[in-house]
Design a protein that fits this description.
Helix content is about 45%, strand content about 15%. It folds into two domains: about 80-355, Beta-lactamase; about 365-475, Serine Threonine Protein Phosphatase 5, Tetratricopeptide repeat (Alpha Horseshoe), CATH 1.25.40.10. It has about 475 residues and is of the alpha+beta class. Helix 16 (about 415-430) runs antiparallel to helix 17. The N and C termini lie far apart (about 100 Å). It has helices at about 1-40, 85-95, 115-120, 125, 140-145, 155-160, 175-190, 195-205, 245-250, 255-265, 275-280, 345-355, 365-380, 380-390, 400-410, 415-430, 435-445, 450-460, 465-475; strands at about 45-50, 55-60, 60-65, 70, 75-80, 215, 230, 235, 250-255, 295-300, 305-315, 320-325, 330-335. The chain contains 19 helices and 13 strands.
Length: about 475
């Protein structure tokens, strides 16, 4: 009888372990994400699963702040550059069908593309960002002057994806949305259909991903969430972006549950055979980037087996997102945020560490928010003292973060405070041309022409290629 009772207790303990483990992980992840949400660093949906079973799923905050509509499991988010993994899948499917070769040059498929580049750059190099074709987002004035305009695919590629090469193809890695726009056009050229239609026919419909698609500003899309940004005073509507621009590099929307379907399909040969699936995860010699996926090794798990993490994030006006798959243990982490600029990488790392029982860093206020609260409460001098204390205590504070904070202060009318922050940046980074340029701009906004001129000259002395400073100096003279 005693032996039977012992056996029964052992069985019960074994049955209870998974439930207890899942509940513990759920609570730990929930508290972790809530910490980011409480300080306005995450607003959206999170899904964590293993081998098709959900460990954690929850919606945080609002899909629309004006109407107080909360995010739900049905909320559809723009996933930005996560689109690239779908584009790479379509390309590999065309390879599988014999319509395309990875080592063939662009010109083989796009006869009207610029010849001197099209005959040198291969499909393979477009996929892993080693083409040397410049990223249109880095074109001067692009965001300000062109992001609201609607383009046809041909017009966009001709104007923004056909510039001189930055380096010899295959010799370096440099992330390029332009390369994936060209891939989208190649898909259309071979299939004789729009990218949107091919995506639906070859991936979304076969998998039953009914809540995923190619985003359109004009279309009515049920449960589509609105995009926002977070500034010093709270949430604001994000800037408009015409969705013809991100195209095959970043124009999709999806839900966490649909991305779970996508994850499951990638473990099968429903869409792609085994050989090409393996090819999809082969990184280049220049970076841990494969075909639409970043691939890296994680530290060993409890079974002392090395872990392979495939991941891609996305960022677009008002949204950022991430999908992470740990192949050996079949973990999936999906993060979908609609308030722009969330620390997605840090959140993703924290959840991964929780899953493997490792330490993780809790949410912490941004430097700008900490200093702004001090300015409101005690003034700019107190804020600078707080900055000094943080720095003396070993906190690494970049030039970029201080510079951004100065511009945030300018945007809400705190010009004198912004000048003090920019001055602080020049003191801490005296060799930075950009720091003096920003200070000069702030002085100019404050109609202090002599100090503006002085700092523009300092900026130009540190960087003779600062054309903007040279132009303003001549104008001020």
């Amino acid at each position: 009888m005693k032996l039977q009772l012992t056996i029964i207790m052992c069985i019960l303990n074994t049955l209870l372990l998974p439930t207890s483990f899942a509940k513990e992980k759920f609570n730990e992840i929930n508290n972790f994400i809530q910490g980011f949400h409480d300080i306005k660093q995450f607003n959206g949906n999170v899904l964590v699963a293993q081998n098709g079973k959900v460990i954690f799923e929850k919606s945080f905050g609002y899909a629309n702040f004006e109407w107080d509509l909360k995010n739900t499991a049905q909320s559809k988010f723009r996933i930005a550059s996560m689109t690239k993994q779908f584009t790479s899948m379509l390309i590999l499917q065309l390879v599988q069908e014999g319509h395309l070769k990875l080592q063939a040059p662009i010109s083989h498929y796009l006869s009207d593309y610029r010849k001197d580049i099209g005959e040198k750059v291969t499909i393979h190099q477009l996929l892993n960002h080693t083409s040397g074709i410049p990223n249109y987002l880095r074109s001067k004035g692009f965001i300000k002057n062109n992001s609201r305009d609607h383009f046809t695919v041909d017009a966009f590629i001709k104007q923004f994806c056909s510039e001189d090469l930055e380096f010899e193809p295959g010799t370096k890695f440099r992330y390029s949305n332009s390369g994936y726009a060209i891939l989208g056009k190649i898909i259309e050229q071979i299939s004789k259909q729009s990218y949107q239609m091919v995506l639906k026919q070859k991936i979304l419909a076969p998998l039953g991903m009914k809540n995923t698609g190619y985003d359109s500003t004009s279309a009515i899309i049920k449960n589509r969430v609105s995009g926002y940004e977070v500034n010093l005073t709270g949430h604001v509507n994000t800037d408009y972006l015409d969705m013809s621009i991100p195209y095959a590099a970043g124009s999709m929307y999806s839900t966490a549950r649909d991305l779970m379907i996508w994850d499951a399909a990638l473990y099968t040969q429903q869409l792609l055979d085994k050989t090409l699936t393996e090819k999809m995860y082969q990184v280049s010699t220049h970076r841990n980037y494969a075909y639409g996926w970043e691939v890296k090794k994680l530290s060993e798990n409890a079974s002392s087996q090395p872990l392979t993490q495939v991941n891609h994030s996305g960022a677009i006006n008002g949204f950022n997102s991430s999908i992470t798959r740990i192949i050996e243990d079949k973990y999936l982490i999906v993060l979908l945020n609609n308030t722009g600029g969330a620390p997605i990488s840090a959140i993703n790392t924290g959840i991964t560490n929780i899953l493997y029982g490792k330490k993780h860093h809790k949410a912490k206020k941004r430097l700008s928010q900490t200093l702004y609260e001090e300015i409101k409460k005690n003034g700019i001098k107190a804020a600078i003292n707080t900055y000094t204390d943080l720095k003396n205590n070993g906190e690494e504070i970049s030039e970029h973060s201080l510079n951004d904070f100065g511009y945030e202060l300018m945007s809400i009318g705190l010009l004198k405070e912004a000048i003090e922050i920019f001055k602080l940046n020049t003191i801490n980074f005296p060799e930075s041309s950009n720091a003096y340029d920003s200070l000069a701009e702030a002085y100019l906004s404050n109609t202090n022409t002599p100090l503006a001129l002085l700092n523009y000259k300092k900026s130009l002395a540190l960087d003779e290629n600062n054309v903007g400073a040279r132009v303003v100096i001549e104008r001020l003279k």
